[in-house]
Specification:
Layout lengths: L1 H24 L45 E10 L2 E6 L2 E5 L2 H5 L5 E9 L4 E9 L4
Parallel strand pairs: 3-5
Antiparallel strand pairs: 1-2, 1-4, 2-3, 4-5
């Protein structure tokens, strides 16, 4: 009989500990999945991605986030395999703005943008004739 009481006491104690640990990890209020996260403070010169359903404004790209920082790329725009690329020495990068790249085919250019290393694509912000040409 003493063994049964001891076992019952241990089980009751274990259940109390378990329910207490769940009470500590559960949020006090249910999370609203439609609630927006607090926005970060605006940084001067920083661009905010367009809201869902909006078109990006001029100079912004709707492409996925790239792995690189915005920087200049120098080279020549070439047309190969139905697409436009930036050839820089032995390297070749796909340009995501094919319409703008078409205007500079065969010319030395400075492309401002970010490189997505996985696809070897430059997400173009601006293409301009190279200052040296």
């Amino acid at each position: 009989m003493k063994a049964c009481i001891s076992v019952c006491a241990i089980v009751a104690f274990a259940m109390a500990l378990t329910s207490a640990s769940f009470a500590q990890t559960a949020p006090a209020q249910p999370q609203d999945p439609t609630a927006q996260a607090p926005s970060s403070p605006a940084t001067p010169g920083a661009k905010r991605p367009p809201d869902e359903g909006q078109k990006p404004s001029e100079g912004e790209s709707s492409a996925p986030a790239s792995s690189g920082k915005i920087r200049p790329f120098m080279g020549t725009v070439v047309h190969e395999n139905g697409g436009y690329f930036l050839r820089a020495g032995d390297l070749k990068y796909k340009l995501d703005d094919q319409t703008e790249a078409r205007r500079y085919e065969g010319r030395s250019v400075k492309v401002t943008g970010s490189l997505e290393k996985q696809s070897n694509t430059i997400h173009v912000q601006k293409i301009e004739a190279s200052p040296s040409s």
